[in-house]
Each structure stands twice: as structure tokens, then as C-alpha cells.
């Protein structure tokens, strides 16, 4: 497989999201024009992105929604049904634990961790909160692939270090810090203010 | 100003984030190469994106961190200090109300709304939760520019309709539905599973 740009990869989940919504609306077939209209991405870009991964859709017809949905799920590796854990069960951790899209995309929420004894032992979305003291052993026992860091910034690096030592496959980080991890660790840094900043741009520049 | 692509606009908040972190680390100047390394974006792309908005940086030196940070804030319209409100004060709404990055970017959190009488009247991050019954009047009284929707999916469209009627400038939607709003309303749909899906792609495809 040739080298795929980060921008293309970042758009795949958007395509998947739009396809899932189209299916919910009862659509069987969708054109790159209609997909593009829904996502504010040009049809040319969509066709080019998808062509990086193979031949999809039928000229003059469009993409078969269910088929393309499964193909993109497969490309994204969602059929691996990764085991995920959330570390830090404050408001954000609790919100993510209750986020149904993760489940519907095929992720398994298998563990929640916190250090606060008033939270440990509680149940969020059918998963019991475990003491962070046993993080490493639990990751091993439950075969956890992905760690989601939602602890306050000052504790995030330490949690990341422990996840790295536990040979986790990837980290999804919500803490607003520049995390130091080894080059061979996959990490995605999330910043909740990005969407709000984009909205600010639009309402500033283009009063509709 | 020429027409700027959505992809370029979406990258501006990433540049701003990286510049803010660089400044926290004490950097005065940063090259497009170093910025690119931190963001996994090519230096050519960064130079091209920024050139859409004017002349920044000095050849052979790099970008002055503080100057570029202020320029991008300005381009994003963050110096408008938009008044924001969150509608739906469950875990996600509470997490966003406590998210310090919004404040540090210049947004003013001025109101929180919920319909649950056990939540109305409580205080989250110094802001009292208001009954959603007085949504329209409060938007007018407090001059609220942006509404953040964090209610469950089945209530989201109704909330959006009320925001539209209240002549809000923009909507940031976390509900996992395809929202119907007039063409002249700016809306950014957030999907928290996008980052996790990208991480899945990376750990599936490129074992480091």
C-alpha cells in the first residue's frame, strides 16, 4: 500500500460517519457529490481519498452505502474490536464512558480507572471503576489495547508513562499538554477547543 | 480575501495550539519544519496555509511565536470574545463547562441550561444552571453568540430550532444526529469518535 497522507486518514472517519447517517436515513446509494455536500468536502477530494484504498462505487451510480461503510470500517481497523480503557473518571471520562458511538463503532469499553477512593468501585455504563494502583496488571489481564487519558494535565504524563510500560498499542490523550512518549507509541492528542475555534472563524468571516 | 479551503481553516486551530505550547516551553521562534514535526503536517503545507492570510515569519529564521499566535487568533476571530452557552448539563456539558482552554482562547462562558429541576440552580465553574424554559430570553439578555448542544440526541433538534429562532450566530453540536438548520446558520458538528477511529487506523496499519 502506498503512503497515505494524514489528511486523507483524518477524513475517513468523517466519511464513515456520513455513511452511517445516510444508512439511518434509508439511503442505499450515495454519490460523491451528495457526500461532499453533507461534509463540505469536494467530490473530487472524496473520490481521490477513496481511490487510495481501492475501487469503490460505480460510475454514474454512486457508492453503495452499506458496502462502503464496511470497507471504511475495515480500513480503519474497527473490526479488530479493540479493548479500550479510560483513565480519569471525572466529568469528561464519565461522558466518554457513556458515549454510545464508541460501542457502535466496535470498540469494547473494558475498564475505567481512577485514583479517588470515592469514585473507585462505582459503576459507569456497566463498567466498575478500578483503582489506578493496579493499572498495569489490569491492562495485562484484560488485554487492553487503547488507553484514553482524561486525568488533569499535571497527572497525564505519569499516566502515559505507565501505559507505555504496559505495552499498550495506542493512547488517546485529552490532557492539554505536549505528551512525551517513545517514537514507537501511537498517540492521538485531542483538543476540544478546535471545533469551537473553527466555528469562531466562520461566524467572524462569513456572516451568512 | 480569496476563498480559503475548509481543510486550511481546520488546521489553523492546530497551528494555534502548537504555538501556544511552544510558547509555554519558552520558544520565541519556530521554523515551519519544527511546527510540521510536532503536528505531522508537511512544512510546505504550513507555509502554504499561512500564506493564504498574509506574510508571516522571516526567511531563514522562522516564525515569531508570539506574533504568529496573535495573528492566528485574530484570523480565527477569537478576539471577538464570543459569549457562549452550553445546553445540556450532563457529564459532557459539565466537562465542557470546566474546560479551561475555552477561557484561555478568549471565549466567555456566560450561561448553562438544563431542563432537569435537580440540576437547575446548581453552579458549574462559577456559572449557575438556568432553566431551559427561559432559553430565548436569556440568549437575548446575555447577548449569547454561540450555543453548544450537549443534550441527548432525541432533544437536540428541538434545542437547535430554539437557538435558530433566538438568532444565535453559531451552533456547536455534540449530539450524534444530522441536524437540520437553515442554510444561513453556521453549525459545526463534533464527533468524539473521530480521534479514536484515527488511532485505530494507525495501530492497525503501522505497527511501529
TrEMBL record, chains A, B:
GO terms for biological process: negative regulation of DNA-templated transcription; response to redox state. Coiled coil: none annotated. NCBIfam families: PRK05472.1-3, PRK05472.1-4, PRK05472.2-1, PRK05472.2-2, PRK05472.2-3, PRK05472.2-4, PRK05472.2-5. The keyword Isomerase does not apply. Modulates transcription in response to changes in cellular NADH/NAD(+) redox state. Keywords: Cytoplasm, DNA-binding, NAD, Repressor, Transcription, Transcription regulation. It is found in: Cytoplasm. Residues 14-53 bind DNA. GO terms for molecular function: DNA binding; DNA-binding transcription factor activity. Homodimer. InterPro entries: CoA-bd, NAD(P)-bd_dom_sf, Rex_actinobacterial-type, Rex_DNA-bd_C_dom, Tscrpt_rep_Rex, WH-like_DNA-bd_sf, WH_DNA-bd_sf. The keyword NAD applies. This is Redox-sensing transcriptional repressor Rex. PANTHER family: REDOX-SENSING TRANSCRIPTIONAL REPRESSOR REX (PTHR35786), REDOX-SENSING TRANSCRIPTIONAL REPRESSOR REX 1 (PTHR35786:SF1). One of its GO terms (cellular component) is cytoplasm. Belongs to the transcriptional regulatory Rex family. NAD(+) binds at residues 88-93. Residues 77-178 form the CoA-binding domain.
Amino acid at each position: 500500500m502506498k503512503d497515505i497522507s494524514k489528511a486523507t486518514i483524518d477524513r475517513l472517519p468523517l466519511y464513515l460517519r456520513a455513511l452511517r447517517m445516510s444508512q439511518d436515513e434509508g439511503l442505499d446509494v450515495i454519490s460523491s457529490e451528495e457526500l461532499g455536500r453533507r461534509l463540505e468536502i469536494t467530490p473530487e477530494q472524496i473520490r481521490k481519498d477513496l481511490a487510495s484504498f481501492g475501487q469503490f462505487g460505480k460510475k454514474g451510480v454512486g457508492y453503495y452505502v452499506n458496502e462502503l461503510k464496511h470497507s471504511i470500517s475495515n480500513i480503519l481497523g474497527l473490526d479488530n474490536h479493540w479493548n479500550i480503557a479510560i483513565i480519569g473518571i471525572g466529568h469528561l471520562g464519565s461522558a466518554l464512558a457513556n458515549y454510545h458511538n464508541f460501542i457502535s463503532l466496535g470498540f469494547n469499553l473494558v475498564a475505567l480507572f481512577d485514583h479517588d477512593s470515592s469514585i473507585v468501585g462505582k459503576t459507569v455504563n456497566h463498567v466498575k471503576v478500578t483503582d489506578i494502583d493496579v493499572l498495569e496488571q489490569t491492562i495485562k489481564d484484560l488485554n487492553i489495547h487503547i488507553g484514553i487519558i482524561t486525568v488533569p494535565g499535571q497527572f497525564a504524563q505519569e499516566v502515559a508513562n505507565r501505559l507505555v510500560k504496559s505495552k499498550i498499542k495506542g493512547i488517546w490523550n485529552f490532557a492539554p499538554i505536549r505528551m512525551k512518549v517513545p517514537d514507537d507509541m501511537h498517540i492521538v492528542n485531542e483538543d476540544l477547543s478546535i471545533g469551537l475555534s473553527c466555528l469562531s472563524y466562520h461566524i467572524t468571516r462569513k456572516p451568512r
